[in-house]
Amino acid sequence: MATTEHTDTPSSVQQLQDAGKAVVGAAGTVAVDRVRAEVDARSSRAAVEVKAFASAIHASASSLREQGHRSEADMVEQLAGRADRLAAHLVTASTDDLIGDARRLSQEAVAFARREPALAVAGAFTVGLLIPKMLDLIATKRAVRLAGWAASSFTSETRESPGRPA
């Protein structure tokens, strides 16, 4: 009887291992599908934002050109062209291409940091100084926009109130 229980146990363990592998494999597939869907959605949103940024840069280049700053306008126009190409790439590239691009850029950043550690540290320090300022600017703009919206809502409500002079 002991041998029967002993032979059943490895089979049961193997079945549990196989079931566990199947569950992990299914979970991995679901995770990969979610990542792909998220990359697709975010790349589409990023393409729209980059295209809007490129349009603003094109307008700046035109303004510079009108003011007689041709060389500056040419440089700004080059930047706008690169932004246009990036937006087009974000729209047309497959998810695998975008993930590959992200991996390649990450590897290049690591290689640069190894070649030029002082510049990498200086860049990280500069970004560290700029991020709080950018977040503060965004928060200030949002507060001003919300205050303007609240003021316009209050003004329209008081005008529409019966018995109150407009």
Give the termini separation. Answer: 97 Å
* Share in helix: over 70%
User: How many distinct beta strands?
Assistant: 0
Mean pLDDT, nearest integer?
81
Overall number of domains: 2
Radius of gyration: 28 Å
Largest sheet composition:
none
Give me the secondary-structure topology.
Layout: H1 2-66, H2 70-92, H3 95-115, H4 117-160
Short structural summary:
By secondary structure, this protein is an all-alpha fold.
How would you describe this structure in keywords?
166 residues, mainly alpha, 92% helix, elongated, disordered N terminus
Question: What features would you describe in this structure?
Answer:
This protein is mainly α and 166 residues long. Helix content is 92%, strand content 0%. It has two domains: 2-115; 117-166. The radius of gyration is 28 Å and the shape is elongated. The chain contains four helices and no strands.
